[in-house]
Design a protein that fits this description.
This protein is α/β, with parallel strands linked by helices and about 400 residues long. The chain has helices at about 5, 15-20, 35-55, 70-75, 85-95, 110-115, 125-140, 175-180, 185, 200-215, 240-255, 265, 295, 300, 390-395, and strands at about 30-35, 55-60, 80, 100, 120-125, 145-150, 190, 225, 255-260, 270-280, 285-290, 320-325, 335-340, 350, 375, 385. The protein starts with a helix and ends with a helix. The chain binds pyridoxal-5'-phosphate (PLP).
Amino acid sequence: MSTEETFEPSWERDREGFFAQLDYSKVTTPAYIFHEGALEENLKILAHVKKEASCTILLALKGYGTWKTFPLVKKYLDGVCASSVNEAKLGREEFGKQVHSYAPVFSDRDIDEQVLYADHIVFNSPTQWIKYRDYVKKKNPKIHCGIRINPESAGAGNDLYNPCAKGSRMGSTLKECEKHPGILEAADGLHFHALCEQSADDLEEALKQVEKKFGKYLKGKKWINFGGGHHITRKGYDTKKLIALVRDFQKKYETNVILEPGEAVGLNAGVLVASVLDIIENNGKIAMLDTTAEAHMPDVLGMPYRPSIIGTGKPEEKKYDYMMGGITCLSGDFIGKHSFDHELKPGDKVVFQNMAIYTTVKNTTFNGVRLPDIIIMDQNNKIVHTKKFGYEDFKNRLS
Ligand SMILES: *Cc1c(COP(=O)(O)O)cnc(C)c1O
């Protein structure tokens, strides 16, 4: 029996229970707490996929850039994917394995720096390929150059997060690519990114569409990059199916597959701890917090979604309902309605779940609000790193 059939994650992935038993009483709020035990559990699942499918797995820095944890991450993953010069440089400096760069568009300045850091550069369009490919190869012949294709598959439900939506600027359609004969053949590899928080079944559908449109260009490519959006570390994700899809694809097209998840790496590996500062009332009770959706967890308003708080329920599920109110002056700075077993009072702490991803990489100092500390805990719940932000961080971004 192969390890694939016997593999079961050792941890039940009950992350709410896990984070509920940590002691937050001494935490100065607001603070993100990233836990290396939870992170490593995710990494083990990804390493299992990597081994069984013999593919490459990169960390997408866009979703998770907590570089103090990279010594752990790089034990399991092959490198990073970067969407800008800054990310590529961070990957080169702090991760040090493979750096794969893609951006919806590159400038001359970008390319001059990318050639210093990147192992792979993926262009979004045939015109960018024509403009920069020979220049890149002249600077460094070892850099692989690829093209991002747009399979025009179903993709994610919300168009804000759907790279394959009608009218998308992400990647080039078959029609656009074929206006420039020979380019798809000349590329070292092809890249598509068509998913967002999706399953192996969704990947199967996307692959069908990739094969239908671009099938004749896949064989013998050095690599085909399946992008991110694979929710591999979510409970119930069918890793067996993912492994089979990757293996079959590699065999059929004699190529190597690259996956570049962001969310799956840091999924449920961190929390955001906040304190209640005041309770006000207007059409129900509002708990005013020292955190904010707008500046500390912008996806809450962007997606939008309601993050969960440890030990609470949906509205009316428990005895006391509170709307969570943010600290900025944005009128809509709310973090959802949650129900509690007890009444809230100033000084109480609330712990938002799943806050390691798309938070620190996106947060802002809007309104001059204090940025949360970044605390890293190791496998033994010991705090191994605390980063504090202050007035200088706010001032340095202004002039
Ligand atoms: C956003 C993105 C990723 C990571 O996506 P996740 O949903 O965080 O897994 C990977 N590759 C590309 C090109 C992306 O734009």
